[in-house]
Amino acid sequence: MAQVARRAREGTVVSDKMDKSVVVAVSSSTRHRLYKKIMRRLRRYMVHDETNDAKLGDRVRIVESRPHSRRKRWQLAEVLVRADRPELAAEEIDLELLGEVKVEEEETETEAKAEPEEPAEAAEEPETEAKAEPEEPPEAEEQPEPEEPAEPEEQTEPEAKEAPEAEGEEEEES
C-alpha cells in the first residue's frame, strides 16, 4: 500500500468543551498580491481528539484525516506544548480571597476600637488648631464665587458690542 501524504498544521487549542473534539486556531500570514501588505489569517479547525488529551491553550499539531463528522476533517497528531494553567479553580480562589478580606476587616475593627481611646488624650491640643483651619477655607471659597459670575458678563458684553458694529458695516456696504 502506498502511504498518502497528509497535510499537517500547528495551532493553539481555543475550545475543548466537546467530547473527543477540540477547536484549533491556526494562524498564517501571506503577502497581498497587489498592495504587498502582509495579511494575517486565522483559520479555526474542528479536530478529532480521541483521548481528550488536548486542553485549552495547548500548542498542538493536527493532520488531515477522513471525515469524522460534517465539520471534523482533522485529527490530533500530538500536543507540542502544554499551556500553564492554574491548579485551583477560579471559584476556590475567590473563596480564599474572601476569607482573607474578612480577616483583614476584623483586624481593622479591633484596631479602630483601640485607637479612639489613645487619640482622645492627644486630641485636646489639636482641637484649637483644627478650629483655626476651618475658618480660613470659607473665606477662600467666598472669593471665587464673585469672580465666576463676572466672567460670563464680560463675555456677553463684547458679543453685544460686536453685533451692532456688524449691522453698521452692513448698512455702509449697501
Question: What would a concise description of this structure say?
Answer:
The protein contains four helices and five strands.
SSE diagram, text form:
Layout: E1 8-15, E2 21-31, E3 38-48, E4 59-64, E5 72-81, H1 90-114, H2 117-122, H3 124-142, H4 144-173
Parallel strand pairs: 3-5
Antiparallel strand pairs: 1-2, 1-4, 2-3, 4-5
Task: Please tell me how large the radius of gyration is.
Answer: 37 Å
Number of strands: 5
Spatial strand sequence of the major β-sheet: 1-2-3-5-4
Q: What is the typical, i.e. mean, pLDDT?
A: 75
Could you estimate the helical fraction of the residues in percent? 40-55%
CATH topology of the largest domain: OB fold (Dihydrolipoamide Acetyltransferase, E2P)
The name of the CATH superfamily of the largest domain reads Nucleic acid-binding proteins
Question: What is the helix tally?
Answer: 4
- CATH class of the largest domain reads Mainly Beta
Please identify the structural class as seen in this structure: alpha+beta
Principal-axes shape call: elongated
Low-confidence stretches: none
Strand content: 25-35%
